[in-house]
Amino acid sequence: MTTNKMRVGLVGSGYMGKAHAIAYRNAMAAFAISQEQLQCEMLADATPELAEIKAQELGFNRSTGDWKQLVSDPHIDVVDICAPNFLHKEIALAAIAAGKHVYSEKPLALNADDAKEMTEAAESAGVKTLVGFNYIKNPTVQFAKQLIERGDIGDVVHFRGVFNEDYLADANLPFSWRLQKQFAGTGALNDLASHLVQLATHLVAPICSLCADLKVVHKQRPCAQAEDGVGEVENDDQAHMMVRFTNGAQGTLEASRIAWGRKNGLSFEITGTKGSLVFDQETLSELALYINEGNPQTQGFKRILVGPEHPDYRAFCVSAGHGLGFNDMKAVEIRDLFQGIVNNTPLWPDFRAATQVNIILDHVVESVDKRAWVEVEQYDGERK
Amino acid sequence: MTTNKMRVGLVGSGYMGKAHAIAYRNAMAAFAISQEQLQCEMLADATPELAEIKAQELGFNRSTGDWKQLVSDPHIDVVDICAPNFLHKEIALAAIAAGKHVYSEKPLALNADDAKEMTEAAESAGVKTLVGFNYIKNPTVQFAKQLIERGDIGDVVHFRGVFNEDYLADANLPFSWRLQKQFAGTGALNDLASHLVQLATHLVAPICSLCADLKVVHKQRPCAQAEDGVGEVENDDQAHMMVRFTNGAQGTLEASRIAWGRKNGLSFEITGTKGSLVFDQETLSELALYINEGNPQTQGFKRILVGPEHPDYRAFCVSAGHGLGFNDMKAVEIRDLFQGIVNNTPLWPDFRAATQVNIILDHVVESVDKRAWVEVEQYDGERK
Amino acid sequence: MTTNKMRVGLVGSGYMGKAHAIAYRNAMAAFAISQEQLQCEMLADATPELAEIKAQELGFNRSTGDWKQLVSDPHIDVVDICAPNFLHKEIALAAIAAGKHVYSEKPLALNADDAKEMTEAAESAGVKTLVGFNYIKNPTVQFAKQLIERGDIGDVVHFRGVFNEDYLADANLPFSWRLQKQFAGTGALNDLASHLVQLATHLVAPICSLCADLKVVHKQRPCAQAEDGVGEVENDDQAHMMVRFTNGAQGTLEASRIAWGRKNGLSFEITGTKGSLVFDQETLSELALYINEGNPQTQGFKRILVGPEHPDYRAFCVSAGHGLGFNDMKAVEIRDLFQGIVNNTPLWPDFRAATQVNIILDHVVESVDKRAWVEVEQYDGERK
Amino acid sequence: MTTNKMRVGLVGSGYMGKAHAIAYRNAMAAFAISQEQLQCEMLADATPELAEIKAQELGFNRSTGDWKQLVSDPHIDVVDICAPNFLHKEIALAAIAAGKHVYSEKPLALNADDAKEMTEAAESAGVKTLVGFNYIKNPTVQFAKQLIERGDIGDVVHFRGVFNEDYLADANLPFSWRLQKQFAGTGALNDLASHLVQLATHLVAPICSLCADLKVVHKQRPCAQAEDGVGEVENDDQAHMMVRFTNGAQGTLEASRIAWGRKNGLSFEITGTKGSLVFDQETLSELALYINEGNPQTQGFKRILVGPEHPDYRAFCVSAGHGLGFNDMKAVEIRDLFQGIVNNTPLWPDFRAATQVNIILDHVVESVDKRAWVEVEQYDGERK
Questions:
Q1: How far apart are CA C194 and CA C81, in angstroms?
Q2: Per the database record, which ranges form the GFO/IDH/MocA-like oxidoreductase domain (chains A, B, C, D) (predicted)?
Q3: Which of B143, C183, C324, D43 could form a disulfide with D60 if both were Cys (CB 3.0 to 4.6 A apart)?
Q4: What is the C-alpha to C-alpha distance for residues B350 and B321, in angstroms, rounded to an integer?
């Protein structure tokens, strides 16, 4: 069943909540979606007061201090979950139970079992789901996928992905919920490597086996209140994986949250039998492409600036090389969400695909425990 | 007199018109401006039908096929001119006569005399004006200005600016109004070098003398209709200037619209007595900075990724290095426009400042005719 | 016992042999070593005729078609082995037996057992040894080591090294000895990853455990003579390692000989508790350095161009940023060799250090067989 | 008349003298020139003692404290002038009078009149001449020339060259002969822009008219001996030129010796009707090339790493991307010198070509005086 509009309820207005709010506006103007068709209907936050202020600032019609009220509101079509990770499951299950479509930030859940429960609930209820692995929405990355799919670089034989940031590089940054397993799950693995896993799967093939290494480098951090002493850091600062894909390709994936100097340091290099491509999110509007053809004297990596010849760029600008930003990727994601819902077409990556990411993250922990390679369960491969 | 809202009438919904439309939405979400405070009220385009479609797509409440109707509408506070250059003057004068504030795309006019007439009309009427020299609104460029103003690179002794694109590099692209003096004025000079002149003035000091060179490289182009033969190109493909600034610094500015491979190739390097900075719009979210201090062994250009420590970035993202896009600069410009109007504070660059750019462009033509250096009239310096 | 001169006998005048010949000349002029002190005395190659031609071309006094004659010549102080890998052992053992110092290209041997035998022979005979892991001789890399040792980036917590080239990326390149275990040992692992292992050990700490993955991607290649059909490739095109260092740091090392577009793609990024540094051999005269200090607003990776403030650069040029080349690194290696021999001081990396590399490469194969982590024998740690 | 050997007498063993000494050795090994064929015969320096030490260090057979003795020595075929600029003329004329070939560092002379006198003396005497504009010997730049000549980028329509260094950026560096007209001639113009003029001429076409700007930024500098007070700087810190070439192309050339952060900052961008190329000496082994062909979606600047497919690289290394250094360019220059002399073939750039550079530098001063464009004398065009 198709509809002609999408009314959004946003849960959480922090970092990603604001990015979503910007993206709704941006998507409407860029993709010619009217305010009638896409309505920012309600915003939930921790208290009614905060929610009201934020709704005003971010352009939502109504607000509430209780996300349960939002989830059950009859004028909401999609629940957009930007709450902390450990709340994703409860909110999503409630939204599904209320028959709402769900758009959740990543990682979908703290572990694969929770993610499966969420996936099965959504599939049973027949609601649509989308998880915010936004990096694949970047026109540059869409173009990379296009190049791979049409065979420009031949058969993919290697993927190397790195996602390094330095948001916890300072050992004196205070202890917080992010460093505790019960609230955050794993560390750099969950926050950063999850994107790499999803990108690798999206661009190359399913991952079928892996071997991993995790390390907590800064084992204690001072509590925010000096009198509380120090907190014991429970999750990884650095995460490594060697992987094999179902198509036979090899890969290496690594992430760090303590890599000084890297701010949004997601990069990948994909090697095929005919060429290679290289991407770095810190220069998100360009792709380096090497193709083995023509005069060897003039072979080299081409620096391609994304432009109107590439997917979805033209909606933002008709001139090449003018540069898109981080928030523009989210606008593409919103456009996907909108089209999927109003046209009743599939969304990607949905809960099942995101569950596959959670499964792989769980296998990482298993591999670390065993100090050996492990085989990967193919949950997304069982998609009906 | 302050007000609490800004109602916008947009004239023209092509390239820049759409960029403005995106920017209004983007600015509202990023800078917490409510829909009550900033209203996209009316859109004018060539025909009522087109205007209606575009108003729908871009989120404007009403539409009209006659910009004169928009200009005189009582529910419009600001007229936003995204019409072709040769119409700027007529629309702006009409808007000013109707007591509207005016926000115009650059270049302000086809020549300095027209620009002066517009400036004087606006100043007499007491309306506010803003001209869309958007590159100075980029947080990275704002940061460059901050570095210069607080003396981090010492006294500026040199500015080199290049603005190269390749939108007319193909000699077989058809003849058009852009290539005729009566509609477009000069060529690369007007389109591209105007930005460099404004940037140089903004970042260094007023330009007091110059010597220039202009060249039409592709002298004829085929008409769009083959039976019309060829058109004679009347304006420059390449433009060069050597300049001197009032503070004694030297500069070189050059622009080309036929520079293969450059898409938004606006770059500058500013040298001071203590250091240097380098910017390239094709990587708009980074600045290279060299400071002569500390151990010579570890001196080098620093690649600084723009982040929340820098002006206006935090409104878009709380994490450094996540990258802003071209449209985000326009959102900052809209925020400036909004604040200037609701708080009744000065806007920059206004018509007078933009007229100074037009004056310099006219001196370029004069210098080319004389094959010699010329002194520059200081119109903006007479600001009251 | 010190001496005042070094007379060289070079075995092999192919790729690396010529590089050595250039380096002897280069080192003499750059480091003020006279022709009296450093004599290119004899060159051995496959036939007397070839040897004579090459000696003439490369500036050696005498020549021979029999390396055994060279090894036993009384006017030779150092035997320089640039013969194919599988001959290293026999030549080195003969040279040692004749009381000569030995300077060998890497990898030292095809496996750890051979390398140990060579090491023990040399140590018993009291001759000096040096192995051509030239990348650590680069002034830029020497500077990186200096930065690490003096604590500029704090304690090292991570090393990532990649060494990718594309010399076998074309699947139609003919079958050769390089692809057979008995002649070449492993593939990309031996050729390329061996450098990473040595660099990581040199810059960070000994490697104490590892887990690895190897893959032959192009399993068959056409024989050079079409009638011979295809050859079965026996060694790895791609090699991965996750490692742990004795200081607790983590690392990832990977190499490929089929990575389209990479020509001398040796790069590393080293993260410490206070900063990071990044090097790429394709731009061998620059180092990127990030230090967490000062105003966060002006933090960024510094691009440092190597110059006379850095180790050994001044011998080549007194101006910074003028760029050294690949052959200049070899000249530094020759200078080290000369000084070690005439002053009777230690050489680095010697056979024992190089044997540690061979041991690690053998552990890689062991890990692949076990599909698990393995502990690394510390042979170099037993150095007396 | 051909000969079979070249015996060199080097005058001056400072910065460039040592670079030449390294280059003689390097050229012999790289290009298979024997010690019999190329003899480093005599070195002259300021005193006999210094000359003897330097001859020993740099590998010259004999030495002298009097360059006149070297110039008249019967066992010298080529006089290599690495003495300060103001001595070039006297030494060259004496060498020519003695029937020697002359290889001089650039700039050839302090002014065009001197250069013409030197050229005419050499041409009358029938000796060969070569001037050390080494940047055109770089395999990367040779490749650029090849691309232009075979039409890969179409007709050249624009050249932009910048040569910035920071060797005098510190205003407290002491006063010296370099800052006085009688010893150094002009400043950044002579030292740096002379290379740009030669490169532009070499790569594009003769320069037929120009307009220039020169500025002394730091007008006084402290004398080395504090009691001597300050010295008045007489020559330019920054130099600008706009030029027109005989083929109709436009160009801009600029140089600075006070540009913080630039160490060997010679870069150029050449635009043609079909493509563009970009070079930066600080990464001297790569060229960026953009060609307008094929799918617009995959157009971009290619980063080409110089390798054995390109001119003269293979002599140094058989693998691509291994990087040449500054000194390697000089080795190519020496190879040219050697071949020209032993084969009696033309050398490039000779005194006449270098005189054309001096003529242009003189026109720069004329243009600055006139504050206008000037026509350029075509001296090299009168070559017989």
A1: 18
A2: 142-278
A3: D43
A4: 31
Question: Minimal CA–CA distance to C258: which of C230, C221, C229?
Answer: C221
CA distance linking residue A19 with residue A8, whole number of Å: 14
Residue A258's alpha-carbon distances to A107, B320, C244, in angstroms, are: 20, 14, 17
Q: Hey, which chains touch A, using 3+ CB pairs under 8 Å? A: B, C, D
The one-letter amino acid code at A180 reads Q
Mean pLDDT in chain C?
96
C84 C-beta neighbours (distance < 10 Å), count: 14
Contact yes or no for C270/C203 (Cβ under 8 A): yes
What is the domain partition of chain A in residue ranges? 6-134, 139-283+285-324
**pLDDT tens sequence across D191-215:** 999 999 999 999 999 999 999 999 9
Q: Among A141-145, B13-17, D257-261, D312-316, which is the least confidently predicted range?
A: B13-17
Question: How many CB atoms sit inside 10 A of residue D2's CB?
Answer: 8
- The two counts, helices (H) then strands (E), for chain D are 11, 17
Q: Which two tokens stand for residue D304?
A: 């080409």
Q: To the nearest whole percent, how much of chain B has pLDDT over 70?
A: 99
- Which pLDDT band, with edges at 50, 70 and 90, does B105 fall under? very high
- How open is the CA angle B372-B376-B381, to the nearest 5 degrees? 170
CA torsion angle C90 C95 C101 C107 (round to 10): -10
Bridge partners of residue C81, in order along the sequence: C11, C104
Query: How many other C-beta atoms lie within 10 A of the C-beta of residue C167?
Result: 17
Read off the tokens for D75: 């066992």
Contact A221, A194 (CB under 8 A): no
Which token pair is D18?
A: 């040592």
B155 burial type by CB count under 10 A (0-12 exposed, 13-18 middle, 19+ buried): middle
Place of tokens 């109602």: B7
What is the helix (H) or strand (E) element at residue B197, kind and residue range? helix B194-203
Q: What fold, for C139-283+285-324?
A: Dihydrodipicolinate Reductase; domain 2 (3.30.360)
Residues of C in contact with B299 (CB under 8 A): 302, 304
Separation of first and last alpha carbons in chain C: 19
Of C301, C305, C310, the CB nearest to B302: C301
The number of CA neighbours under 13 Å toward the Cβ of A140 is 30
**CA–CA min distance C15, chain D (Å):** 7
Set of chain C residues whose Cβ sits within 8 Å of the Cβ of A259: 158, 269, 271, 276
- This prediction's pTM: 0.97
d(CA D299, CA D294): 7
Residue D296: asked if its preceding bond is cis (omega within 30°), the reply is: no
Put simply, the chain A residues between 57 and 76 with a CB less than 8 A from any chain B CB are 57-59
The shortest C-alpha distance from D119 to chain C (Å) reads 30
ipTM of the complex: 0.97
Say which residue the tokens 């500098």 belong to.
D221
Q: Assess B274–D contact: CB distance below 8 Å, yes or no.
A: yes
Query: What confidence score (pLDDT) does residue D1 get?
Result: 55
Within a 13 Å sphere around the CA of A157, how many CA atoms are in the beta-carbon half? Answer: 27
Q: How far is CA D271 from CA A39, D161, D302, in A?
A: 50, 12, 15
Q: Which CATH superfamily is domain B6-134 in?
A: NAD(P)-binding Rossmann-like Domain (3.40.50.720)
Place of tokens 């001081």: C345
Tokens for B372, please give them: 């010699």
The conformation of residue D177, written as its DSSP 8-state character, comes to G
Fold agreement between B6-134 and B139-283+285-324: no
Cα distances from A256 to residues A260, A282, A285, A303, in angstroms, run 9, 15, 23, 27
Dihedral sign, CA of C146, C152, C155, C160?
negative
How do strand B78-81 and strand B62-64 relate by DSSP bridges?
A: unpaired
Mean per-residue pLDDT, A33-54:
96
